[in-house]
Amino acid sequence: MKADTAQSLAVARIRDCASVMQSLLESSAYLSAVVKVADAMTKCLRSGNKILFFGNGGSAADAQHLAAELSGRFLKERASLSGWALTTNSSVLTAIGNDYSFDDVFARQVQGMGSPDDIAFAISTSGNSPNVLRAVNVARERRLVTVGLTGRTGGNLPSTVDCCICIPSDQTPRIQEAHILTGHILCELVEEALFEKN
Questions:
Q1: What is the pLDDT along the chain (198 residues), one digit of tens a residue?
Q2: Which of 150, 136, 143, 147 is nearest to 107 (CA)?
Q3: For labelling, which of 8, 11, 48, 106 has a CA lying 20 to 30 Å from the CA of 40?
Q4: How far apart are CA 174 and CA 13, in angstroms?
Q5: 173: Cα within 13 Å, side-chain hemisphere
């Protein structure tokens, strides 16, 4: 690819991303959902409960990223918060996948680790990942608060969770870019609420 063609492609993708980000600014539904989820996360952590993040592929990376922002730190020097990614233990993932099914890799962990009033935080660009939806169903049975982070339509996820944040895009890369921005906003809102004096 010629340099000028490559540069044009880069510019086009930056514009695509900027367009999605602008649409977030203009979406009262998105902003309301972000505030609602941040409040739920704050309540959960203030009560000594935990947040379980999970998803596949890029969403698995986002799950790990957000769990790290809580258990490590985001912007403030503060106590660790209980954020867990269900995507990181290769022995657990391969054992459950082998002995049961890949569709059970998150559900079995939620069943074993989840307690009432914890948050099951499902990340899926399509909202249709079978293992994500199965974990949400188990979480609801166990009385966890369920949160979804997905794309424009959200597939089946919005109808199965207590609160869903939908990114107004149908393109996976743009959705993923907005997901990590949204995750960072949530982490900052939680820190501000729990550690206002720091």
A1: 888 899 999 999 999 999 999 999 999 999 999 999 999 999 999 999 999 999 999 999 999 999 999 999 999 999 999 999 999 999 999 999 999 999 999 999 999 999 999 999 999 999 999 999 999 999 999 999 999 999 999 999 999 999 999 999 999 999 999 999 999 999 999 999 999 875
A2: 136
A3: 106
A4: 9
A5: 7
DSSP-based three-state secondary structure for 47? coil
- Best CA proximity match to 81, nearest among 51, 103, 111: 51
3-state helix, strand, coil in the chain (%, to 5): 55, 10, 35
- Cα–Cα distances (Å) from 52 to 76, 94, 110, 138, in that order, read 22, 19, 8, 13
Buried b (16+ CB within 10 A) or exposed e, 161-179: bbbbbbbbbebeebbbbbb
